[in-house]
Amino acid sequence: MNKNIAFIGAGSMAEAIISGIVKAEILHKEQIIVTNKNNQERVRQLQQKYEIRSMMDKEKVVREADIIILATKPYDLKNAVETIKAYIKPNQLIISVIAGISTDHISDLIEGDFPVVRTMPNTSATIGYSATAVTAGKFATEEHLEQAKALFQTIGTTTIVDEADMHTVTGISGSGPAYIYYFVEAMEKAAVEFGLDQDVARKLVIQTIVGAGEMLQHSGESASTLRKKITSPAGTTAAGIDTLDQYHFEEIMKQCVQSARERSIELGKKE
Length: 271
Prior knowledge:
Helix 8 crosses helix 9 (about 200-220). Helices cover about 55% and strands about 15% of the residues. It has two domains: about 5-165, NAD(P)-binding Rossmann-like Domain (Rossmann fold, 3-Layer(aba) Sandwich), CATH 3.40.50.720; about 175-265, ProC C-terminal domain-like fold. Helix 4 (about 75-85) links the parallel strand 4 and strand 5. By secondary structure, the protein is of the alpha/beta class. The longest helix has 21 residues, at about 200-220. It has helices spanning about 10-25, 40-50, 60-65, 75-85, 105-110, 140-150, 165-175, 175-195, 200-220, 225-230, 235-245, 250-270; strands at about 5-10, 30-35, 55, 65-70, 95, 115-120, 130-135, 155-160.
């Protein structure tokens, strides 16, 4: 990819994407620029860790970029755009990875008919396993959408969705890794409580999660079918599943996703 990419924001999501892009080797490291509001130490850390460029001069950052990735916190977006909008050119693609913020709102902040593509990756981008949803703003063309897809496919899979569905996507794949990590934490704690060594518990739980994911990815069978195949009547798995049902596990997960979705909507309303 012969494009210079500028990250406006240097938080965990920006780092995850930068890490994935660097590992994928689709760009020379000097084609990646990172800046943030005023934390020079943070951008220097990213520069040294990934051998990319860092700058605090917003005009220079934007003028050198073909693609601008907005990776701030939602509440920092307005101020961030204020510092760069005077330098944005019509031929630049704006990609947002900010939860809850619509493409229309970003266009309004920039005050121009600039192409905006909204994405929702997750932090598994660090190792090339992000599940990224992508949607185009009203000024973005199919070519802009393809550019965004090509970029994010280097750090995992991409799926085109309607913008109206992005709040739900945030609650599923955007926040989803944290739910899985929380589940793993609970499994490990239970294993240790019942006598397993911490390292043994960790290895067994991690491989169980990885194996289940691979089965879902490659078996061609649904989660429901795979679950039923290993749930013998009156067996050990059935006993565990019965307990999850007693504690309304499915409803808990539904409410978990709903809470994240509603928070994404709230963030959008605070635009």
